[in-house]
Amino acid sequence: MKKVGIVGANGYTGSELVRLLAFHPKVILSFLYSRSNSGTKISDLYPDLTTVCDVVLTDQPEDVDILFLCLPHKESENWLNQNPVKDETLIIDLGNDFRLNGNFGSRNFIYGLPEINKKQLSGSKSIANPGCFATSIQLALLPLAQKGLLNEVYTTGITGSTGAGQSLQSTTHFTWRNDNISAYKTLKHQHVEEILQQLVSFNNNEISLNFIPWRGDFARGIFTSSTVKTDLELSDIEQLYKDFYADEPFAKISEKPIDLKQVVNTNRCVIQIEKSGNVAVIHSAIDNLLKGASGQAVQNMNIAMGWEENLGLNLKPIAF
Amino acid sequence: MKKVGIVGANGYTGSELVRLLAFHPKVILSFLYSRSNSGTKISDLYPDLTTVCDVVLTDQPEDVDILFLCLPHKESENWLNQNPVKDETLIIDLGNDFRLNGNFGSRNFIYGLPEINKKQLSGSKSIANPGCFATSIQLALLPLAQKGLLNEVYTTGITGSTGAGQSLQSTTHFTWRNDNISAYKTLKHQHVEEILQQLVSFNNNEISLNFIPWRGDFARGIFTSSTVKTDLELSDIEQLYKDFYADEPFAKISEKPIDLKQVVNTNRCVIQIEKSGNVAVIHSAIDNLLKGASGQAVQNMNIAMGWEENLGLNLKPIAF
Amino acid sequence: MKKVGIVGANGYTGSELVRLLAFHPKVILSFLYSRSNSGTKISDLYPDLTTVCDVVLTDQPEDVDILFLCLPHKESENWLNQNPVKDETLIIDLGNDFRLNGNFGSRNFIYGLPEINKKQLSGSKSIANPGCFATSIQLALLPLAQKGLLNEVYTTGITGSTGAGQSLQSTTHFTWRNDNISAYKTLKHQHVEEILQQLVSFNNNEISLNFIPWRGDFARGIFTSSTVKTDLELSDIEQLYKDFYADEPFAKISEKPIDLKQVVNTNRCVIQIEKSGNVAVIHSAIDNLLKGASGQAVQNMNIAMGWEENLGLNLKPIAF
Amino acid sequence: MKKVGIVGANGYTGSELVRLLAFHPKVILSFLYSRSNSGTKISDLYPDLTTVCDVVLTDQPEDVDILFLCLPHKESENWLNQNPVKDETLIIDLGNDFRLNGNFGSRNFIYGLPEINKKQLSGSKSIANPGCFATSIQLALLPLAQKGLLNEVYTTGITGSTGAGQSLQSTTHFTWRNDNISAYKTLKHQHVEEILQQLVSFNNNEISLNFIPWRGDFARGIFTSSTVKTDLELSDIEQLYKDFYADEPFAKISEKPIDLKQVVNTNRCVIQIEKSGNVAVIHSAIDNLLKGASGQAVQNMNIAMGWEENLGLNLKPIAF
């Protein structure tokens, strides 16, 4: 059994990690770090965890084999500076500190999208876990990028309220958000740079990504539709995608309509392609807290540690 | 045209009053008072009001014919002490300051449930608008109370998130509240005393009301089911209720199943009675912000001013 | 008072017309036609209408001044062939039979988008009411089309379940639709042709509209985001839109973020524009059953009859 | 590995069993029976099951070690008559055919509520799985019944739409159900008899259960509040419940407020007790498809087979 620590365990992605790792056969939760909730049982913050995990949150990190950082963006680097971690520890950062530039001291964080970087992730000690929208949109576009077929992309995506975290905001007030739809960060979402850095490394030429994120009136999940121009036939695109993801346990191409709830409470991404004239639309759906965050972090841990990729990730979908 | 002022116009019930009075044919909005949002247009707080009402909130009240107080509970009295109002002004208080004891200086606040106090409300200058659950539960029980037939009552009610106001709380966070149900203030909701004071004045003997309020995963509305014992036949109870509410424009007895959305965005209360053995259940439903607050306040204004009772209250139901 | 008949009053748009016209000061409901529900009170189908409108549905149409057709697509023409209507009667068809080609016998149906055709609608006897998505998307694009500035448009839109009508379908089953998002009719929604016919008549050159409709997990409303390229500055686009809609009571340009609930239960369309580089995004929101159907039909009636355009349309927004 | 068959695998409870058993370490799915969907892959009906379980539904049952019946009420007996099952096969019926009277041929179905019948269930070959409301309400009342402390009980419960099954009905139409609350089967729900039969066997005297079920606007879960009179102190009641459920892995007493989402997508029941005067309220919450149906069926299988009770039931809660 490997010892695990989670920093920022009191947040949504941190507590999802607890839910996943509590039943993982190869790890034990060694400490759950939280400055603001130190001294409180995690199950007092999240009563669904009662008897599943009643660990008391602490502000005293210990030596562990695997460390997950679930901090607000731009706080991982600070935390690591203040709490030095030995070189042998696998660090998986769920924030965005090391996604664009992975260098930190002697470490070099690998971008943790297993569908492109599985080899580099294997045995790695430093992993930058991708963003939620970034995961959904990249998985929708990677096979085309790999063939150098992307130019202009028009993407609309919708996210559940968990994407906004647990802080109380007017846009997460139930009275406002229920039955409501709104756009935010139009054309300037922070994930665009992250997406383009990866896609361009494949595509070898300029890509423009016009991305409109919407707030949805549900708690979990991301659904994105990306429109591109291509002369490929639909069946050729589908084959391209199937080949690209042939060995991937969590990326699935569907020839039938997909919907968000197919993936909620799972680590999966489902992708469907439609075409009319020379315009193709690629739909993709993930659970933003799992394949878009904590589930993918466990997947990355499994790969880095040389374990079966889906260990602890055979989750019962919510389905209904 | 009568001049109206609304104190606490920046809250939910205050802004609902603006929505109702903006199209009322006998009044003009003279001032909208808010200390915290003074200087801001009401339509900047509530964009649905743009061009409907672009009045700037002020902390300087003026002389008006009709004054609505939409303040947090226990603040109405303070406000009136600090901002003396002349005797000729009709004051309608939506808080709970004067519901149990209506005496304030030379004023005597009448409990503003038109279905029992219409005569006293007519011409009155001081009205204490009932609470939302109090309205739904009283309308469900009044005809039985009037006949002295109430003893023990078991009521469960569910309320939308607007009942909790606009402040950001963990129990109104979308992520928590969506798809969720929970109980609060079990057996000790503050409306029980208000309800009993009215019912007992009719019933002439002891009543016990065991009331369990639930938080619902919707924004608007209250649905309550009250269980009582009675030897009356169902048809007799229905007749009793129909007679009691025969002249009431906003209380309707239904012989068919009722549901909450029948009344959302209206000033109505619908009531249905079911019976098995000697046990009767009375279901009732209202929109908590309208018949449960601002709509009833307008109804009370109409009655007090001698206007048609439903003036400005012919509202299109949301229906779907 | 003008006499009104509604054909298909048992459906969603038909019953919304009843809700609107029951309180309209210039009309009386003369007959409500339904073959399948003939003999039933409309208020038994829609209990929210109890005492508001208890008219019995009939399969015997009468002579009226104004006739609304709320039939499934492609059934209006059949109905008119089987039930001849005299020439003086104003016919407003909410189906899509006459939107693309308005010729029918001696009648010539005018496309009923008041923001472009107000003059032709005034005094008209035949009006083809636009589709719901068609209304939202056209209002978002018209000012640019009028200047010949549209080329390629990428639009994603999301609609409430009422857009799918009242028939029971797997995609309107609560268990499936709750918390779910899905795409349908990708790049081939029937409104695209309707939209382009109007836009091209303004724009004078080819426009391509790549439209992805999504099913939303709410009952009412449409939100669309349309992406275009333009060298105009944001402030110039905003001014263009404000000028274009300067005299329109129901189309509003917002410089601040918009959201769907600003317009639910109103006849309004709110529009917001954002820009980055040479890419502009135009967001728009309507209530699909009001500005997208029955509300716009009443607006068209008012214009055709020479009445005030917003008569009967000063609706209280749901707001929360 | 034991061979499992599921009859009625195309329904909600059947497909939930598939989701649970696909990852259960001691069983393999031998056949999935459905007359109406024979020849179709289960993953074509429920795309979330793609690659998890792609078994083709059949109308030819085979010999298995364990057979689950997930048929509409009153169809289990017919099915068994037409498809004889050998004596060694463990049959778990999720319908209500054998709950009140367990005799069927040489079999005697044990009522499958592990919290009362664990000994009889161990090694049993015939189990009648309890109803969903019946599970939630019994778990809320059993410790009091065991002490003979129950007389009159007033219970209100709310259920998600999955409780109504997958057939398309007006009360499961999204447009109607969203944001809506309604009562059904007031005082005459079919589970009352099932509940009383069990409780009375403990309580040894008359119990009256006045039960009002409500339809909720969510898909999964049941929340019930039961009101009783008792002279016991709150702390004594809590201790009584804790003692009663001390060894139960899935029934948990909470001293803090509970909410429905604590148990959604788990096999747990959480219970909270409140008291005022001589009135006690017991709240309880379960996932109607898991502890209220398929999860409890797996729990019963585990007990009957002598396996660890929570095998395959360490489910990640939806939590958000």
From TrEMBL, chains A, B, C, D:
Family matches, as Pfam families: Semialdhyde_dh (PF01118), Semialdhyde_dhC_1 (PF22698)
Keywords: Amino-acid biosynthesis, Arginine biosynthesis, Cytoplasm, NADP, Oxidoreductase
EC top class, as a word: oxidoreductase
Domain of life, per lineage: Bacteria
Full protein name: N-acetyl-gamma-glutamyl-phosphate reductase
EC number(s) per entry: 1.2.1.38
Reaction(s) the record says it catalyses: N-acetyl-L-glutamate 5-semialdehyde + phosphate + NADP(+) = N-acetyl-L-glutamyl 5-phosphate + NADPH + H(+)
Family affiliation: Belongs to the NAGSA dehydrogenase family. Type 1 subfamily.
Native species: Chryseobacterium oryctis
Gene: argC
Role according to the record: Catalyzes the NADPH-dependent reduction of N-acetyl-5-glutamyl phosphate to yield N-acetyl-L-glutamate 5-semialdehyde.
